[in-house]
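Lab notebook, entry 312. We have the chain sequence and a SMILES string for S-adenosylmethionine, and the next step in the workflow is to get a structural model of the bound complex before anyone spends time on docking refinements. Request logged below.

Task: model protein plus S-adenosylmethionine, output structure tokens.
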Amino acid sequence: MSHLHGYLAFPGFLDELKEELKFGGIKPKKMEIHGNLILVDGQKKKPVWAMNIWGSVERLKIESVADAIRKLKAMGLRWSHMPYLHHRRVELILKGLNVAASKAFHFPEDQLPTKALGSFVMIAPDEILASSHCSQTIPHGEMTFKEDKSVPPTRAYLKLWEIFTRLGVKPKSGDDCIDLGSCPGGWTWVLAKLGAQVVSIDRSEIDSKVLAMKGVRFIQGNAFSLDPTQFEKMDWVFSDVICEPQKLLELVQKWLAQFPNANFICSVKFKGDTDFRVMNAFIRIPGSSLVHLNCNKHEVTWVRLAAQAIEP
Ligand SMILES: C[S@@+](CC[C@H](N)C(=O)[O-])C[C@H]1O[C@@H](n2cnc3c(N)ncnc32)[C@H](O)[C@@H]1O
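Result returned:
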């Protein structure tokens, strides 16, 4: 089996991924880059800025379209293709393969497929890089949803839909949730729709339709001044508040000290450069992980599930 691994960067975050792999001990001159795919010798723990990991990448020398189809078919059942070079030639190859179609998920019914999915890219007319051991079971890990364009006041709700779908865990009806920095109310809307009891706090006003939902209590004020000890029970702590990552870390620690058995989902937002030091501080919190979601811009999502450490 090949020792070559491919790390596919989220669009716009190739530099972050390079930096992350560099911190992981890989010298830049040892990285072979094709589009957003970085090939390195050896496997690394899942980098935050990689949307898919191609395990054991094979270099296939191909003589013809038919030869490419034969070799790819011999490696795996279903394929997704990373668009890069030689598009017309690739189109012909795709006609001969079982290709996985991208589909929009329904929330909360749809789950991630469990069947393995291979990925390939053509880097020269006679050379393909292919992996049948990818970390993602949907093409490139790109998760899109059938959106609700009528009620949620912002598309930020898609972050929660994605993380809940990836984790396979979400608040149950009656769970107590706090939503810090909640306006205009997309996250509160998701939580209330799931039947949770939501205390929602922001300096701005929340959307009136969200405010009217069953289970929603809104506090207009500063999320950092809210005292966690005033709550008897909290099952989930959410934060999408815009602030310095270091300030969020302190906020999270305060809530964690009061509710060590709560689940946490918090956006860590970067202004300017990505702060790898603070990312490491979040990752060091036991049982937690950091993930970059498809709808995260220059931010990552910190997740800590009380019951077990589930890698999103
Ligand atoms: C990205 S928006 C949150 C979007 C929200 N999750 C949604 O789905 O609608 C960030 C929010 O943080 C709020 N915010 C920033 N600093 C705050 C503070 N100190 N206390 C409370 N809210 C704050 C802003 O008013 C803003 O509404």
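Notes for the group: DSSP finds eight helices and 16 strands in the chain. Worth checking against the assay data. The pocket of S-adenosylmethionine is lined by residues 154, 156-157, 181-187, 201-204, 222-224, 240-243 (CB under 6 Å).
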